[in-house]
């Protein structure tokens, strides 16, 4: 929900390194785009998270605003109230 990858199930050191690497790269992009948009990093990452959740497919996991992991179905997504 915050624009960064998370690990839903049991992790391994290799998986954690991969997720950390992707998130470091995302943070760099978000920081640059936030500056260009006159937004904070937090505002921009939440906005990106809102868009990424919309792009999930049935069967994929996404994080709900309460922190729980949900499986995408045909039911409406449970999105952060800050999403427009």
Helix-strand layout with pairing:
Layout (H helix, E strand, L loop, with lengths): L12 H24 L4 H14 L6 E3 L5 E3 L13
Antiparallel strand pairs: 1-2
Helix pairs in contact: 1-2
Short note summarizing the structure:
By secondary structure, this protein is mostly helical.
Shape: flat
State the domain count: 1
Instruction: Name the helicity range.
Output: 40-55%
Q: How much strand content do the residues show?
A: 5-15%
Low-pLDDT segments, ≥5 res: none
Q: Order of strands across the widest beta sheet?
A: 1-2
Radius of gyration: 13 Å
Euclidean distance between termini CA atoms: 13 Å
Number of helical elements: 2
Number of strands: 2
């Amino acid at each position: 929900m915050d624009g960064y990858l998370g690990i839903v199930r049991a992790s391994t050191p290799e998986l954690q390194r991969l997720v950390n690497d992707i998130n470091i790269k995302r943070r760099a992009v978000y920081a640059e785009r936030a500056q260009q948009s006159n937004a904070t990093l937090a505002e921009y990452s939440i906005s990106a998270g809102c868009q990424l959740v919309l792009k999930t497919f049935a069967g994929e996991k996404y994080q709900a605003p309460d922190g729980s992991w949900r499986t995408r179905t045909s039911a409406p997504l449970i999105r952060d109230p800050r999403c427009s």
